[in-house]
Amino acid sequence: QVQLVESGGGSVQPGGSLRLSCAASGSIFSANVMQWYRQAPGKVRVLVAGISSSGSTNYRDSVKGRFTISRDNAKNTVYLQMNSLKPEDTAVYYCNMVTGAFVNYWGQGTQVTVSS
């Protein structure tokens, strides 16, 4: 029973920061690729950041230098630290786990709103 639960979303002013968390259960977390996606209203879901089992990271160009993805295997948790937030970062953020068999699991999503 794989379950991903996101938390940490909310409303913030431009330039502010938020830290998203995703806790995984029911899987061997350390062996899996973890990713964050986001989807704004009326738009497609896009990849924001990813981290491999070895700790290698990748980021969408528009968030490089502002967002940091990390993982704590002991806690089965992946994080997304978001700094210098912009209105265009407003979206529902989804945690994604990809297993070694390329099976995808998704969290329920957490809303991030950046506005004045």
Q: Largest sheet, if any? A: 7 strands, mixed
Helix content: under 10%
* Alpha-carbon distance between the two ends: 40 Å
Order of helices and strands: EEEEEEEEEEE
Mean pLDDT: 95
Q: What's the total count of β strands?
A: 11
Strand content: over 45%
Query: What Rg is obtained from the alpha carbons, in whole angstroms?
Result: 13 Å
Overall spatial form: globular
Structure, described:
This protein is mainly beta. Helices cover 0% and strands 52% of the residues. The chain is built from no helices and eleven strands. The protein has strands at residues 3-7, 10-12, 18-25, 33-39, 46-51, 57-59, 67-72, 77-82, 91-98, 104-106, 110-114. The strands form two sheets. Strands 2, 4, 5, 6, 9, 10 and 11 form a seven-stranded mixed beta sheet that branches. The termini are far apart. The model has no long low-confidence stretch (mean pLDDT 95).
Please write out the topology.
Layout (H helix, E strand, L loop, with lengths): L2 E5 L2 E3 L5 E8 L7 E7 L6 E6 L5 E3 L7 E6 L4 E6 L8 E8 L5 E3 L3 E5 L2
Parallel strand pairs: 2-11
Antiparallel strand pairs: 1-3, 3-8, 4-5, 4-9, 5-6, 7-8, 9-10, 9-11
Write a short abstract of this structure.
The chain has 116 residues and is an all-beta fold. Helix content is 0%, strand content 52%. The chain contains no helices and eleven strands.
